[in-house]
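**User:**
If convenient, please work through this fold.
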Amino acid sequence: MKVFAAFCAVAILSACAANTVATRSPTPVQKSLWKTDNYRVPGENTGVLVINRDTGMRGAACIPLITIGDVQVAPINVGENLELHLTAGRHSLRAYPNRNCAASSTETSVEIKEGQATIYRFGFHKRSMAFTPVAY
């Protein structure tokens, strides 16, 4: 019985230690969870910022709130994505952890170009949240 308990503990802990994996077909964040109507539809001089949340066990209990500048946009869960229509130019992209998350907030600067898509992965590296640009 002790061997079985030890096996279960190792299996559970190794799953938590696994790195997150890029999601292949993310589900959009439910519109009812959005905190703002900003950024939902394209406008004049806008580009698209897509944020895809990784899958995997690391950080699965953490559902961070995504903000653009000082505007709260929406929480993003594992395997979800946000598609934001932003004016061309530089924007501050942030993620703030919820209560279930021991990670600290993270921030990056994104450059949006008119009529183009900019794609970022959001996941966890070691004990930190991270935005990673995706090149297609």
Confidence is low (pLDDT under 50) at residues 3-18. The chain is about 10% helix and 45% strand. The beta strands are 27-28, 46-53, 65-68, 71-75, 80-87, 89-96, 106-112, 117-125, 128-134. Residues 2-17 form the longest helix (16 residues).
